[in-house]
Amino acid sequence: MSSTNGKIKIGFYICHCGTNIAGIIDVQKVVDYAATLPNVVVSKHYKYMCSDPGQEMIQKDIKDNELNRVVVAACSPLLHERTFRNATSQAGLNQFYFQMVNTREQNAWVHLDPEASTDKAMDLVRSAVNRVAFHKPLEKKTVPIKPDVLVVGGGIAGIHASLTLANAGKKVYLVERDPTIGGHMAMFDKTFPTLDCAACILTPKMSAVKNHPNITMWTYSEVVSVDGYVGNFQVKVKRKPRYIIDDLCVGCLDCIEACVYKEPRFFDEFNQGLSKRKPVYMPFPQATPQLVVIDPETCIWFKTGKCKQTCVEVCDRKAVDLNQQPTYKEIEVGTIIVATGFQPFDAKKVYYYGYGTYPNVYTALEVERLINASGPTSGEVVMRDGSRPKSIAIVHCVGSRDKNTNLWCSRVCCLYSLKLAHLLKEHTHANIYNFYIDIRTPGKMMDEFYTRISEEGVKFIRGRVADIYPDTNDEEHRRLIVKAEDTLISEIIKVPVDMVVLSTGLVPRDDAQDVRRMLNISCSTEGFFIERHPKLAPVNTFTDGIFLAGCCQGPKDIPDTVAQAGAAAAEALALIDLGYIELEPNTAFIVEEECSGCKSCVPLCPYTAISYDEVKKKASINEALCKGCGTCVASCPSGSIKQNLFEDEEIYSEIDGILNYKMEEALC
Amino acid sequence: MPDKPKLAFYWCASCGGCEESVVDLAEDILFVVDNVDIIFWPVAMDFKKSDVEKYADGEIVASLINGAIRTSEQQEMVQLLRRKSKVVIAHGACAQYGGIPGLANEFQKEEILKWVYEESPSIINEEKVRPQLKYKVNGSEVFLPELWNVVRPLDKVIDVDYYIPGCPPSPKLLKEAVLVLLSGNLPPKGTVLAPDIALCDECPRKDTKPTDLAFTEFLRPNLHIIDPEKCILSQGFVCMGPATRSGCGALCVNGNMPCTGCYGPTSRVKDQGAKILSSIASNVSAKTEKEIDAVLNGIPDPVGTFYRYSLAGSILRKKVNI
Amino acid sequence: MLKIEIEEAASKQWQPKIVAFFCNWCTYTAADLAGVSRIKHAPNIRVIRVMCSGRVDPQFILDSFAKGADGVLIGGCHPGDCHYQEGNYKFLRRFQMLRRVVDSLGIEKDRLRLEWISASEGDKVRIVVNDMVAKIKALGPLGLPVKYKEWANEMNVLESEIAGKEEVYA
Question: Looking at the domain assignment, is residue C129 inside a domain?
């Protein structure tokens, strides 16, 4: 740097990004303009700045022209800032002697007028050229990564991620809200397109989780708070009282038998209410862990305080403890995988389909249970009224692709509808009508599966169902009329059926917003958690160290879920095995001799990074705790706090640049 | 005996308090008088403009000018003094930032004249007579200085070398400034001759300020009693101390009144009002707009509160739509 | 030309310039999303990226106005969603106070705007920017640097008078 004699020499580059940028912005004009700006000694444009030749051009110019600052106008800094910082540092410059201008996402892609776009680009280039002159050489700080991982959610995504990490030798805490792991997949009968039995695939993985020495599985538990940051999250987990002592229960089910309720009479969640359970119950035969649970909402002891407590009496291991209280576990982990899943669309919201009104209208998930050999009817398709259907309508896109409900395609419904068509045909030999908008069967072996089902004699009618109502010609008022426009023949058709299956879509869980806030991650508009970048960082979130897996990120099928869970586990492993993460050095610091010790900043820091030294009578910032928001900087009444990368001068210089403000104007 | 260095004092839009601060040097004034030649000081001695005009350019070692610039006469005089002086010092808050007279920048010139000559309750002026800028009497014309539309700090009118803050500056600062001038060892141009650290640094109540400040209400000193022991800001009274240079010895706080900010901001701050506002508002505990507004209502005149001395020298300078 | 044409031509010449401070995690990302989704909007904003709306110093806002911005827009995460827990609340409080000052000093309310725009609300960027540009176009330029120059002119009158007198004396 000494060779430049302290003179600032800026290299400016604008990227065409093919025609993405150059198609609207006059890059030559910007280059010519930038060349006239103070301190700019090199000004060039290039087709793809992020390509190797583009980066090499910068590096060569740094050496040949003794550049000591670099400005690149290209895409968003959120996309390629790192790339160009690396290029800068590889040429021997400090990587923070770089500034990027967002010329694509926030300019070329959103404006139509080439002149206005070019003007905007020039304003922002001026701003960046101004700013970069103030940049200081900085070093990235690193924080160590604790090797333990928290996985939130014990569905197939959480199970797979946990096993991957545990098999790699990492300690995993798997927290599941329900009494058992397994999630929605455990409720399915078969899986498309192979029609292999869901339980046969899942159950071994569930027991592998249970038995894995590296996995601490906490079911019937909820994460209640997450503090800290990547590498060092402090997590508090609430273990809800199961009223059963885990270590003592052997799953003999004697307590269920002994319950004062002789018959099961409460809504059985696992079977979607198609069967009943007792207040003390095992969610399903393969539940993992094999522990019963007592539901205080239905148990007469909790409701009235009066009960003979036959369950307590019958347990010779004294495993039933009706006085159990919630316990809280506090753990420290370095990374978190969020696999909280989805919930099915509430079919009652499309009232004209009659779910909840007509007993023979079912949701797809109910049918999964109905045709399952271990389901409420042992696999017999017996409807709520006791009859067996001879004709069945499967209504696609319930709560999907509908501006009245949800705009998105839930991705799995076409295929599971085909699967259910096949299984229902197999079980009932009924006539099956699929009412669809489009059949969407991308993916390996999926369209072949569609062909196979259509050749099995299942009928397909292209038309969104408009109404479902009882057939008045049916004396028993059981039959339903499904009314739709068959758009292939442009005719309104009315199909009488005995049973309707609503292929409900996948929606974010009701508490997704709470989870999001707790974890400090973001949701997209529809409420699924948003990934950092759909292509470059599909399982990352905007919060370092927190990864996404499965349907909490968006509807997807089991293979994709498992793949994503593996990817999330791999991202966590990458951090853990490196052992540290580099953080932006955008921390704040207090200039001690300038600080008056007014203490105004101390309560502003949410991370308690600011403390007041009673001896020196000054405040100071613990760099390790500072996350770099800059709130204290903006609030310091005497301007004595500075933020690296965001110093006041840097921001003022950007304002000056944007507004083309000249210092002589200040004299007026 | 060689000529003693020549010193000039002048006042513009000010109250005279800065002149008092010279007198407040007490016996130290004898030292000043021994070492300098006061060649111009209209408030204390009879001098004419022509007395200044006769000096060569740069002959006066230093002019200490107090008050904001509001009239053509003030402008003319400070431009003259600038020419004749090696060093110009903005003396006091009004010269530095416009001071209290700068608050007139919240109003139009016409509004002010109308109030002063017609509407003020103490005025009896049925013919609504206003001073005339030019008036012919006995065949000759007499002039009055013209009132400008904008109140300006001194450095918006002439080049200023140094600043002595305060309303008024403490005699200690003034004495130090004179010593610096006499020493010939001048600090960099633009220096404010006061410590560059906020008032809390020397506030006797500093230790009583909590580290978990969260405002639930703001109080006004004319309506509530101030606890004489505790940090005034922490009691809910707006104290500008955290955003104001020290150097006064926390004079107001020692009189059990909050700092109103007359020493101006530190060198790191462009706009004292914006900075104290930022600090104080950030520490309000409410979270919803409505609740925040309810708390902020306790500061009914934010401009007069946060910009009491600095409006004319602030980023926006004046009410911009008049 | 018809009057309306003249007005149109005039309005084409003057385009408002809005300085925007967007937080890295929500609004800046939303503005990027608007780009990725090709959601077209008025080309009048110039974004300065800060990590959090809490970093936005009221001085930056005033400075932008004084240096020629016709409007200032601040974008942060929705309440409760701040990447840094509460930076947006701290800015909101400042904003509520600053708005009173800016209002007292004669800058129209529509020129200073705070919006909570989450990372997924690319379309909200369009709505907010277009709406703000339309409102500021209706107000016309704020043009403080020009005003400061005009205000300074009152002193030039005297300077030329003095110069004139001095010539006479000479």
Answer: yes
- pTM here is 0.85
Contact C105 B281 (CB under 8 A): no
**Inter-chain residue contact B246 with A596, CB threshold 8 Å:** yes
The parent domain of residue C72 ranges over 15-141
Considering the domain architecture, whether residues A117 and A103 belong to the same structural domain is answered as yes
Question: Per the domain annotation, does C164 fall within a domain?
Answer: no
Three-class secondary structure of residue B70 per DSSP: strand
**Interface chains of chain A (3 or more CB pairs under 8 Å):** B, C
Question: For the domain that residue A466 is a member of, what is the CATH number?
Answer: 3.50.50.60
Nearest CB to B282; choose among C90, C142, C144: C90
Within a domain: B316 = no
pLDDT confidence tier of residue B184, bands split at 50, 70 and 90: confident
Q: What would the pLDDT profile of A134-147 be if each residue is shown by its tens digit?
A: 999 999 988 899 99
Q: Are A246 and A329 in contact (CB under 8 A)?
A: no
Spell out which residues of chain B touch residue C54, defining contact as CB-CB under 8 Å.
282
Residues of chain B contacting C106 with CB distance shorter than 8 Å: 319-322
Give the residue from A590, A592, A598, A652 with the most B CB atoms within 10 Å of its CB, the best one to mutate. Answer: A598
Cβ neighbour number for residue A503 with a 10 Å cutoff: 30
A302's tokens: 């909790």
**Range(s) of the domain holding residue B244:** 199-306
A600 vs B: CB within 8 A: yes
Is the pLDDT confidence value at C10 over 80?
no
How sure is the predictor about A533, in pLDDT bands with cuts at 50, 70 and 90?
confident
In a domain, C28, yes or no: yes
CA distance A477 to chain C (A): 48
Q: How many domains is chain A partitioned into structurally?
A: 5
Counting every residue, how long is chain C? 170
Determine the residue type at A308. Answer: K
CB pairs under 8 A between A and C: 162
Are B320 and C154 an interchain contact pair (Cβ–Cβ within 8 Å)? no
On whether residue C134 sits in a domain, the answer given is: yes
Tokens matching residue B154:
């001194």
- Please state, in angstroms and as integers, the Cα–Cα distance from residue B49 to each residue in A513, B58, B90, following that order: 75, 16, 19
Do B116 and B177 fall within a single domain?
no
C138 interfaces chain B, CB cutoff of 8 Å = no
Question: What is the structure's pLDDT at A525?
Answer: 82
- What is the side-by-side order of every strand in the sheet holding A459-462? A361-363, A499-504, A391-398, A431-436, A459-462
B178 lies in the same domain as B41? yes
Q: What are A282-299's pLDDT values in tens digits?
A: 999 999 999 999 999 999
The pLDDT, as a whole number, for residue A2 is 39
* B321 vs C: CB within 8 A: yes
CATH number at residue C27: 3.40.50.960
| Residue C142 contacts A, CB cutoff 8 Å | no
Looking at residue A549, the DSSP 8-state letter turns out to be -
Instruction: Indicate whether A361 and A492 sit together in one domain.
Output: yes
Domain count across chain B: 3
**Which residues share a beta bridge with B43?**
none
Whether the CB-CB separation of A588 and A627 falls below 8 Å is answered with no
Range(s) of the domain holding residue A15: 2-140
* Mutation site for B-interface testing, chosen from C55, C59, C98 by largest number of B Cβ within 10 Å: C59
Considering its fold, how many domains does chain C have in total?
Answer: 1
Interface test with C, best of B147, B282, B322 (most C CBs within 10 A): B282
CATH of the domain at B154: 3.40.50.700
Q: What is d(CA B240, CA B253) in angstroms, rounded to the nearest whole number? A: 11
A604: chain B residues, CB-CB within 8 Å? 282-283
Three-class DSSP labels, A173-211: EEECCCCCCCHHHHHCCEECCCCEEHHHHHHHHHHHHHH
Contact C97 B277 (CB under 8 A): yes
Same domain, B10 and B124: no
Confidence of residue A665 (pLDDT cuts 50, 70, 90): low
